[in-house]
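Subject: CBM6 domain-containing protein

B.,
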Amino acid sequence: MPHKEIDTQTPGDARTDRLKPRRSGPMWRRIAVAAAAVIAAAGVAVVVRPALAADNPYQRGPDPTPASISANRGTFATAQTSVGSGNGFGGGVIYYPTDTSQGRFGAIAVVPGYTATWAAEGAWMGHWLASFGFVVIGIDTNSRNDWDNARGTQLLAALDYLTQRSSVRDRVDASRTAVMGHSMGGGGAMYAAQQRPSLKAAIGLAPAIFSANTANVRVPTMLLSGQNDGTVTPSSVVSNYNKIPSGVEKAYLELSGAGHGFPTSNNTTMMRNVIPWFKIFVDSDTRYTQFLCPLGNWSGIRSYQSSCPLVPSPVPTTSPTGSQSPTPPTEQRYEAETAPAVCQGTIDTNHTGFTGSGFCNAANAVGSYSEFTVNAAAAGTASVGVRFANGTTTARAANLIVNGATVATVSFEGTGAWTTWVTKNLSVSLNAGSNTVRLSPTSANGLPNIDHLNVSAA
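Prediction pasted inline below.
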């Protein structure tokens, strides 16, 4: 279990951490490796770090310094392109490095807070993040009044669009994705992390968390609060931080003197901590742990906690070749409107928020169905996420039929509106190879509208 680091600073505190020289570069790495070998030979326990940065094919950019992570631009030249609505979210802007010589980049989706737009609240950070070696999509929501679960669902839809259908998809490594959001969007980032544990990182900025339970989050998570935030108080953010399981990498920062709107304009204090978090966990780049373990710069920070030493996922044993991703994503998406899926009803597009090109509006009759053909690399239990909308106040029950056998009856609760899409996660036993997964209503009320299935090995 990682050692827990808890530091608190108030104005005037003396920090001996600042007096310690930062040692980096090839010579210091060789010295550190040699020293570890001597200590291990003496019978002393040694913490084994992930592969050195030079062995990491995800590493992007030069060795970082305190000055470089505080700059408002990294080393990559960037460009942007706009995205229209109709892809499961309300449109947005993609920011990306123009360099195509370093393989694919990790991806970050960002959503603003309640009633806010990306242009007004978040656009200042788009090129900033991209210049450090990420493809970033900042989104607007289908409705400015969307709740945190709807914002989380749209973050995931934005990542799927970015990695599968966008004009820059060949620049993105779909196995390395992350989410971030402010206020209601921060709650959305936590909802997205709970729904998709394959995410590499999540960040909540003054997160208003209503629909997620951070006790169920398994994604490396950073939460930030403002000292003077009366909307989402620091104590509420700390409470959600403490609920994140001890085995999950996490960090918490409270910004001195900041209010609820601290992420809505150029904020160097926020960015010099957010960037290392993404670099560590999206790029598995341990060169950046020096800034968070221990916290390297206390200017503007009132308190800090983390699960140091902040160990990212292992890097692949072989380097990627060109644009090939060495670790393809384990999750597969199956759209209800795309063959070989079958919808006994109509494929509709009249309710916004769906992914792909439409959704299945099955007939309101017992025996109607929405059926998917899914593939499994090996026999075993898989996690199946059914994305649906039920604009009524009455739950709609359906039989879950796998390879012709009814294995469960599932209740699809009302979602409040036909444009509010949520995901229900189920466990299903699959055979190796091709399988059919059918949802068939048990009453004449029919099914909810079915958008897609997400299937991943357990």
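Residues 5-306 form a domain with the Rossmann fold fold (CATH 3.40.50.1820).

T.
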